[in-house]
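Let's study today's protein:

:::
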Amino acid sequence: MRLWRPLTATLFLVAPVFLFGPLASLGFAAGAPGAGLAMRAEAKYPPGFKAFDYVNPQAPKGGSLVLGEDGGVDTRNPFALKGEGSFEVEKLVFQELGESSLDEPFTRYPSLAESFALAPDHLSLVVKIRPEAVFSDHHPVTAADVVFSFELFRSDKVLPFYKSYWSDIKQAQALDAKTVKFTFAKENPELALIITELPILPQHVYEKGEFADQAIGSGPYVLKELRPGAAVVLARQPDWWGKDLAINKGRYNFDEIQVKYYKDPTALGEAFKKGDFTAFQVASAKVWATDLTGDKFDTLHYIKRELLIDSNAQGGQGFVFNLRLPLFQDVRVRQALALAFDFDWSNKNLFFNQYQQSESFFQNTPLAAHGLPSAEELAILTPLKADLPAEVFTKEMGWLGRGQAIKERLREAARLLQQAGYKVKDGVAEGPGGKLAFRILLGGGGFQRVIEPYLQNLRKIGVQVSIDEKEASVFTKRLESRAFDMTSVIFSQSQSPGNEQRDFWGSAAAQQNYSRNYSGLSSKAVDVLVDRVIYAKTRAELELSTRCLDRVLYHSHLMVQNWFSPAHRLAYWDKYGHPQVLPLYYSLRQFFSLMWYDPARAAQLSEAQAKGLPLR
């Protein structure tokens, strides 16, 4: 399933984390209004349900939510190929055909659609559009808009990811003004669900004029203001056509949502404490542990801090090598560079023991590989042996440096470099790939303090690395054009890996500038394993195939593994409410859509601040 631009910056409303279920046992009557599509399971919510279990259906509407973020925005259209778009605009101004619930692995309920009907042979899906659905300019949503959107997202006007994601969908046909048929090129277990993730854009707006200048959708909010590099302001539509649907009850409660952008993470934290914005998704362990303290937190209680537990797949985070460069062709060099990163020291001294070390690209899920390959994994991997690293069969997952003190790790790193033909001369190792000197591209966010101890360790083995820090828009452009040596990336994953894996690891994606195959990994064996994941027919087959893929990715050493957090860190000024029952699979951006403004609490906060008294 789809997951969005996994960069170092925090992303908005990343698609929830899901499982599949066999399309042969879909838990719905084909075409029944409101019935969900579930893969390898039955939909939790039957037609006619009142609201999702994790919302407050009586949540009041009103007030505002002001968020703060690193980075910036410079285009109204979040789908445009160029520019920095807003994820708030993408998920709140625009609507998709279906909606996911956050307490199921992978189920899609009709949203813009009124119903879904899957053909018995699983090679087509008929979608009926809700008669009441309209865009914010009051034009009705039609089948023609759906077909137009499908073709648009397969064009060169948008990121190439979309074309890859829906590559197994042959065509979209308007059967009548409100009915669309999607025909699949082959049976692919996730196609029926992922096509319902198609954002629908109005043809009468987007077929003319400059594509990047528009932000007209059918969602609960409209774009009120965009100040390039500074802020995005969204306004709720009180007469929104979808407000009474069960999938929307208790959601989208703020009259206004504003996102303010800051260039400096220190300025971001200080602005929050001054009240310049009201809810803070805290990405930094240091900020959480040391900066969000003082009277407003501890004695006056104006600001609340919460650790929100989830069951999300953690994906993979690390310092990614650009494998297109001669410098990183030898896997022993990459292993040596990875050994120099001392997670235990960093976690204790920099992260206040808030993180766990990553050893998988599917961390925290049954999809993650462990130990040595099982007999079932060997049956898949052995025929691919000629194209695989030998260590896939001989080394455990997470073996590199495990249990070694940093002195031992650096000695082993130096040995690997010597084995690869490198000799240290004038403090710099030089060998077949040239001098071991390169730059790490960073997009800000306070990573310098994390990187610097790593660089000190690298210098001890003759590797000279410097930091190349750029502001968000330049960082993104450099990343997308592959103009980096090493960089920091998060590969967001889900409980339901599928077509997006081609964009992460596929050989074809390695040659596309705007794909998410940042490392440039190109492997026939990986391509085979990705296809096994995509076309798995059962949950057991999916998990087995993904574990094989995970194992090969790890032993390819395409990045220096980093860390993950087992909980969301949220701080907010105490004038909001949220449901006590948490979803299972969610991002904080999704959680914001469940929160609401509490006018009584806001009045108490204002009175306490005016008098300098604690908030009770």
Observations:
- The chain is about 30% helix and 20% strand.
- Residues 3-30 have pLDDT under 50 and may be disordered.
